Structure formats: C-alpha cells, structure tokens
C-alpha cells in the first residue's frame, strides 16, 4: 500500500527543503521567548555582514608591511564607498562581540545550557571569533595593530621550555614583521569559514532539541511555527541592528578605534598605553591583574574556557534566574564585574587599579567556581518546596 | 484555586526585608571605594592641560565642513606648515570641488615640479604637476628631515587630527598654546614650551603669528583664525569622505526607520491573534469535560 502524499506539502517531502523547514519555517518555538532570544539571528546577520564586507575589502587590501597601511588609506580615500565598507567591517565587529556577550549572558541568566553540543560549539565559536578579531586587528598595520600583535604573541614565550620557539614559529621571523602579517591575513580569511561551519552545526544542534524559554519550564504544551511569528520578529530586530550599525558608521565611525592606529606601525616607537579593542579589555585586565606572567596567561585562558565547565553543573528543576534570586544576584554581579574589568583594562596599570583588578578578577572566578554551583544549595532554604512540585 | 496558585508562585521566594537594602549598600560602598581610590591618585600627566572642547561648525551629526575655512586652511598649510610637514595621502585632485575649482587646482598643481618620464636618451626629466600628483613632500626622506630639524622628525599631517586624542581641539590648542615655561622649569634653545603637548617640551616652535598669511578672501589673519582654519583643513585631509559620509547617514536615517516601522507593524500584525488569545485553566479534567465531550455538549457550566 502506498501512502497518499498528495496533501503533504512539498517542503516536507523534499530532503533538503524538509531539513531547512525544520530549522527555519516549521520549527516549533515557544511563544513566550522574549527579545533576549533574538540575539542568535542578529549574530547570524553580523556574520553575514562581516563575510560580505571582508571579501570586498580583501579585493583591495595588500598584506605587505610597507603597503598595508597605504592600502587601507587607498580603500578609505580612493575606492568608491570604500570608507563605508571599511567602517562597516570594523564597527560591526564591535557589535558582533556585543551581541555575543549578550547571547552568552542570556544563557547564564536563564540557565539554558541544556544541550551540551550547542553550548560547547557556541563557546568554540566565541574563541574562534576572538582569534579572528585579533588577527584582523593586526591587518591595518597601525601602531596599535603592531604593538598589540607584539604583546599578545609574546605571551606564548611564558610557556616553559618551548615558549620562545613557539613565538618564533608564530612570527615566522625574529620579530613581528612581514611573514607574521602574511600569515595573519591568511588566517583572517580562513577563520570566518570555520566560524560559518561551526555556526551551521550550532544551529542544527540547537534545533534538534526543544527551545528554551524565559520561564525555564517545559514548553511542549504550547508551540508556534517559526515562520511568520519569529521570522517577522527577527526581521524587525535585524533592521533595528542595521540602523544602529548604520548610525555608527555614518555618524561616529571612529568611536571604537584608537587614535594610535591612524599612525603607521613603527617598531622603534612604543605607544604610551597599549590596549586592545574594547571587546578584549576584560580579558586583558584579567591578564594584567596577575603579577606572574605565566599565571596571567593561565588566568586569561581560563577566564574564557571556564565557560565550558558550566556544563558540569547540575540541571536544576527551576532554571531561569527570574525564579532563582541568588543566581539572579550573581549573574547581575557578573555583568557588573565584566563592565568593571572592561573599564580597568582601559586605564593605565597604576597603584589603585592593579589591586582593584586583582579583587575584581578574583570575584569573576569566584562567581563561576563557587557561587553559581553553590546556589542550587543556598536557594533550597528560600524556595518553597511545595510550590516547586506544583509549579512543574 | 487558580488565584491561590498564582499568589503562591508570586511568593515563591521569601526574603528578609533588609536583603535588598544590604545588597544596595554593598554595591554603593564598592563603587564609592573605587571612585575614592581613583580620586586620591596624582600622576605626572595631571600637570598637562587637556584641550577643552570647542564648538566646531562640522562637529554636528549633519553639518558639513566650512569649505571657505578649508580653503583658507590650505593656504596656511601651503605657506607655513608645508615647509616641514608632508601631506602624503592628499592629491591635487582631492582639492577639486572641496576648496578649489578644477582650474584653480590645476594651477596649484602646475606650480610644482615632479619627476616625469625618462627622455629618449634615458635621462630623468621634470614636468609641472598635474591633478593626479600628490602634494609635494618637503624632505626627500626621514633622515634629511631629522637633520634639518635638530633631530626631530616632523610627522606627516594626513591623519594628524584623527591620530591624536581630542582630535581638532588638541591641534587647535597646540598651535595656540605656546607660553613661557613656568618658574622652576626651563626649555632648551631648540625646544619650545607648550601647554598642551604631552611633556610640554615641543621641538616645533610657535609658527603662527598675526598676519603670517595674507588670506585671499580678506579675512583678518589672527593667530586663532589661522589655527582654526588649518585645523579644519587637516580634519578634512584626515577624512575627505567626511561630508559624503554624513550625507549618506542623513538619507539612511530617514529611510531605515521607515523600513523598521513597516517590519514592526508586520510583526505586530502577525502576532495580534496570538497576543489576544485567552488561556483557560481547567483544574479537574473529568470524563465529560474531555475534548470529545466538549465538542458534543458545548462548554461546561461551572
């Protein structure tokens, strides 16, 4: 007996269309997800902007130390709408990172790391983004590009025994010079494609399980199809984000860039304050807060890789911070810690700030290692057990 | 029963009354401690004067450069600054329709001599400049520049406004901020004392004096007038696309919010049914209230 497939829509019969419809159109989605859940599509939008502008910029850019600064100048001054292209690429990188931080904060606040593959790949995407952003910042070959590259690559020299060899291997020379710029350019072209494939796996893994929602409760009882409801919502916020990006690139395009980077790289002159872009400042101040070089690097790496360890936490019955006051307090204090660390990273490493950054770094790690795991116990005292049972 | 349940969820957590106050006190105390610890530090850079912000006519979101000022600034650059400073990313063609007409820019370009093609015998030649030539550099290379300026290298001015903190304000105040060193401080003969330069000892002595330049348009050439004009000119040189950028921004900020309104309305329209639906909670599901029963007999009367 053959099945009558006449009334089954085309998109459900076709192999690829069925796959896509499960992700973008027919996907059952909880109706109560709020604007915090829009960041995923905004990140995808940022990635597409970066890919398009990046490929167009690569047509005019010259990865060679005597020409790279001039080629950026050429793009800004001589290429038709080149300044828009370049400002779009640099400024939407900032918004890309802003969205990533909000996206991660969503997961910590609402405890939505149910799907281990999605979470692990998500953090891997973030780390890949950091590397991509760093090597990309070196490409204009301004003063801050050069010295950021020098400082960050020199960190590897703290590795015992093989550190110095690794630094030489990364440089491809005896200092940050032409071979370094060439390989950074190559990596800056390669990594976005790794990022794209990781993103696709991230989305597939995400949609293979149930969506999370702000209440943190089961949502099988009430779902909406993704298309029409959430495509319109995502379109609306995407246009809103593009208005913000557009406003920045046409009104204040130099807000996020350092004045030093308008000066061509000079290995003989060190800038007074070397600092990365704002989105790396929190990690930079964690690095600086530890007096020991190797210790600082380990703190820097663990400040990001600690996000992997969140998976080891017990899955609570009540997930969202909306219903978990202690976790709510900790996540808010983590946000403030992040902002304070960003601020400390931008001030010179002087007397009050060094000890302050040490305290704030200690609080950052305490929140992750002690407070968040502890809250499943501390909250037992204040949450009414009977209500939990009814609430489920 | 439903009402009591909602109420009990609202009372999900029991906090002592002082909890919020305590958290607030700790937060305020922490931030206060941070601010105070910052207030009591004094560093060497505190002696440096920070350039105060000035009301530039082009600093608004939708204001273009004062192009008469750019033209005067070019004159100051050409007659004063160009003796030591290059402007390597500016071509004569950039001046066209910005500060000069095409004919005027061609005349400006024709005033200089640039290296031409080799002649038939292979000897280097010189020709008058064209629109596509760059503005001439005062020195052949950095070493010549250093030896002519007591070891100091005059920086290229193409990006100077954007490459310094406080941008235009800093450049204006640097040009007008020369003074005698305060008591207890002295400067060498080749150096000058400047209130706004980091370290205060600047290798460039004061360049702008009253009537250093005779303006084409008859503007009185005071020091602050020349400093303002050359700063506007250098701001233009740092970003020739400035006016275009703001014009595109103006158009976009009209069109894009309209686009957003359409998208927002579409979202509201699609969601309106879902947003106005009513959820009922039926606590006791007995057999006669099952969906089949509901369909057959109509809604139960409670």
From TrEMBL, chain A:
The keyword Cell inner membrane does not apply. Its main location: mitochondrion. Residues 216-386 form the Cytochrome b/b6 C-terminal region profile domain. One of its GO terms (cellular component) is respiratory chain complex III. SUPFAM superfamilies: a domain/subunit of cytochrome bc1 complex (Ubiquinol-cytochrome c reductase), Transmembrane di-heme cytochromes. Heme b b566 binds at residues 103, 202. It is a multi-pass membrane protein. A ubiquinone binds at residue 207. Keywords: Electron transport, Heme, Iron, Membrane, Metal-binding, Mitochondrion, Mitochondrion inner membrane, Oxidoreductase, Respiratory chain, Transmembrane, Transmembrane helix, Transport, Ubiquinone. The keyword Aminoacyl-tRNA synthetase does not apply. Heme b b562 binds at residues 89, 188. Component of the ubiquinol-cytochrome c reductase complex (complex III or cytochrome b-c1 complex) that is part of the mitochondrial respiratory chain. The b-c1 complex mediates electron transfer from ubiquinol to cytochrome c. Contributes to the generation of a proton gradient across the mitochondrial membrane that is then used for ATP synthesis. This is Cytochrome b.
UniProtKB/TrEMBL annotation, chain B:
One of its GO terms (biological process) is mitochondrial electron transport, ubiquinol to cytochrome c. It is found in: Mitochondrion inner membrane. Residues 68-198 form the Cytochrome c domain. SUPFAM superfamilies: Cytochrome c, Cytochrome c1 subunit of cytochrome bc1 complex (Ubiquinol-cytochrome c reductase), transmembrane anchor. GO terms for molecular function: electron transfer activity; heme binding; metal ion binding. One of its GO terms (cellular component) is mitochondrial inner membrane. Belongs to the cytochrome c family. This is Cytochrome c1, heme protein, mitochondrial-like. It comes from Oopsacas minuta.
